[in-house]
Amino acid sequence: MIPATDPKVGYKVLVRKAYDSCAAAYAESRMAEPGNEIRGLSDRLNDGDAVLDIGCGAGVPIAKSLAARYRVTGVDVSPEMIRRAQQNVPAGNFKCADIMSTQLPPSSFDAVIAFYAIFHIPREEHPDLFRRVYRWLKPGGYLLCTLSHYSEEGYTEDDFFGVTMYWSNFSLGEYREILTEAGFVLVESKSTGSGYENAALETSENHPLVLARKQ
Ligand SMILES: C[S@@+](CC[C@H](N)C(=O)[O-])C[C@H]1O[C@@H](n2cnc3c(N)ncnc32)[C@H](O)[C@@H]1O
User: Fold this and answer.
1) Which domain holds residue 92?
2) In terms of DSSP bridges, do strands 206-214 and 137-146 run parallel, antiparallel, or are they unpaired?
3) Atom of ligand 1 nearest to the CA of 98
4) pLDDT tens for each residue of the chain, 215 residues long
5) How close is the Cα of 197 to the center of ligand 1, in Å?
6) CA 192 to ligand 1 centroid distance, Å
7) Which residues line ligand 1 (CB under 6 A)?
8) Most distant CA pair in the chain: distance in Å?
9) Could you give the number of structural domains in the chain?
10) Pocket test for ligand 1, best of 20, 30, 52, 120 (most atoms within 8 A of CB)
11) Is the Cα dihedral 20, 21, 24, 28 positive or negative?
């Protein structure tokens, strides 16, 4: 774990290029997953609802399983991930962009999801991200996202699917406050493995899966 404090490194650019490089290996690892992470949300949605997937990656397994019942919009900063998502989920509507500079119509989604993506955005931007998500949701709409248990300033690791990757996040307690300040009501919080169902019980691969609702 190396502190991400080098002023010469653009860490958002690093994330985009890193996912372009490791897209094939990462997507293959996710291909094998059942996508059970969305269970708690699908009980609450109706067929045909509009769902935004932030950091959708290659669209597997999440966007693909969502697209069977819902209208899916996926946003991802990596062109290679978006190319794969378009192939894997032809029914989806995909856009290559940084979610922090993406313009979407207010009150236009029944649900917004973000799996294993928010921690790749510098954490200083997270309060603004949740305010943006709140605006994009319809009243009563849901946010389902993986967050983090512990507070960690930006850092990189060199061994993420063969590339150097960046993460930064707040603790679950801090996220509860940030979400509440943005206007969300917390519905439930569970734990999930970091995309790898069998690892859900291993603390190093364990993330809170938070369901929140726009009032
Ligand atoms: C660990 S992958 C998760 C992909 C997918 N959600 C899944 O469950 O497998 C994280 C994804 O977030 C995307 N991402 C990172 N920062 C982003 C940003 N600022 N805006 C949009 N996408 C971003 C990456 O390109 C990558 O595809």
Assistant:
1) 2-214
2) antiparallel
3) 20
4) 899 999 999 999 999 999 999 999 999 988 877 677 888 899 899 999 999 999 999 999 999 999 999 999 999 999 999 999 999 999 999 999 999 999 999 999 999 999 999 999 999 999 999 999 999 999 999 999 999 989 999 999 999 999 999 999 999 999 999 999 999 999 988 776 654 444 444 445 678 899 999 99
5) 18
6) 17
7) 15, 19, 30, 55-57, 62, 75-78, 81, 98-100, 115-117, 120-121, 195
8) 47
9) 1
10) 120
11) negative
Question: What's the CATH number where 203 sits?
Answer: 3.40.50.150
The CA–CA distances, whole Å, from 7 to 10, 11, 28, 84, 159 equal 8, 9, 33, 32, 22
| Confidence (pTM) | 0.94
Q: Which residues contact 122 (CB under 8 A, 6 or more apart)?
A: 11, 12, 154, 168
